[in-house]
Amino acid sequence: MKATILIRPKAGILDPQGQAVETGLGHLGFTVRNAHVGRLVELEVEATDSADAHAQIERMCEQLLANPLIESYEIVVEAAA
């Protein structure tokens, strides 16, 4: 099953990359606020159903892909074609 995981800083957590993007865009003449930089992870996992896939990916996020203290994540699972 295919999955997409969006990982981003939790609200209220300092995001230096987001601040750098915001500053850089400002220097280029763009007016932006609240820029945040995260990561997008795409993968395929062997699972019996979408609930099993979601549970596996939840463990992956907790153990490796995200830092649960400072990052939040969203998991989207779709059946492989």
Automatic annotation (TrEMBL):
Keywords: ATP-binding, Cytoplasm, Ligase, Nucleotide-binding, Purine biosynthesis. GO terms for molecular function: ATP binding; ligase activity. GO terms for biological process: purine nucleotide biosynthetic process. Pfam families: PurS. InterPro entries: PurS, PurS-like_sf. Gene3D superfamilies: Phosphoribosylformylglycinamidine synthase subunit PurS (3.30.1280.10). This is Unannotated protein. It comes from freshwater metagenome. The lineage of its organism: unclassified sequences, metagenomes, ecological metagenomes.
